[in-house]
Amino acid sequence: MAQTVALSASPRQATGKGAARQARFRGKVPAVIYGHGRETQPLELEAKALEKALHGVEPASTIIELAVDGKTVKTLIREIQRHPIRPDIIHVDFYEIHATEKVKLRVPVHLAGNPDGVRNAGGVLDQVTREVEIEVLPENIPDRVELDVNALKIGDSLHVRDLSIPNAKILTDADLTIATVVPPRAEEVAAPTPEAATEVAEPELIRKVREGEEEEGEAAAEGGAPAKPEAKGAGGAAPAKGEKTEKAEKPKGGKES
Questions:
Q1: Which of 73, 114, 173, 229 holds its CA 20 to 30 A away from the CA of 249?
Q2: pTM of the predicted model, to two decimals?
């Protein structure tokens, strides 16, 4: 069954952002109460008392007995606004409920047990849906809904239709998946860091190509053999193709040695 907590609130005369900031500065939390045709009434509560009352309970499914001007009414929290950075509550919406009228609210779904696919096959339990909407009388509001997952193997799933909530009508789509067991995730191989890649890579050798090597490289690229240097004559020039090489003259007046 839903838990019940008691809180006291005071009417808030000034409204608007400026008045709300002033209330928070004084340690108060701005709030409103509405429902059953009553006009929306601005309220304020003690911040510390509110935090203490909501500690360890499910706010959406907890009945708040709210005392205002000496009169106590049963309410549900429809919305809690918190500071974007700090966990402070900055505004609360209360909805008045009557014992004989059914209310619509969302209740949390808690998974119970350890699936077979997790115990014996290394799978991972994934909860897809964490709350469901129901219609119920205030006296039958559950604190939460538990779902047994012990029998789930890898690839198995449980859906909204598998839930059982006494004295309540489930409004959430029956085919919606609540939980499933998926295969174990493969371990990812960490990519080498830029520093490690720099250390492994060898430096590229860069040097100036000599003129002769450049010619040999061009000849090899054309499919021919590398050119051999031509023999030079006494005058430094190589004989032309087809020409006969003249016999060296003997010094005049001398004998052949």
A1: 229
A2: 0.65
Helical H segments across the chain, by residue range: 17-25, 47-54, 116-121, 194-200, 211-222
DSSP 151-198: T--TT-EEEGGG---TTEEE-S-TT-EEEEEEPPPPPPPPPPPHHHHH
Taking CA atoms, 16 is separated from 13, 38, 104, 152, in Å, by 10, 20, 29, 52
Residues 6+ apart with CB under 8 A from 51: 89
Query: Of 81, 97, 113, which residue is a domain's last?
Result: 97
Contact yes or no for 143/60 (Cβ under 8 A)? no
pLDDT band at 253 (very low <50, low <70, confident <90, very high): very low
- What residue type is assigned to position 56 of the chain? G
**Side chain identity at residue 236, one-letter code:** G
In a domain, 225, yes or no: no
Give the total number of structural domains in the chain.
2
Q: What does the pLDDT look like over 154-203, one tens digit per residue?
A: 999 999 999 999 999 999 999 999 999 999 876 655 556 666 555 555 55
Q: What is the CATH number of the domain that holds 40?
A: 2.40.240.10
pLDDT tier at 245, thresholds 50, 70, 90: very low
Name the token pair of 212: 């002769």
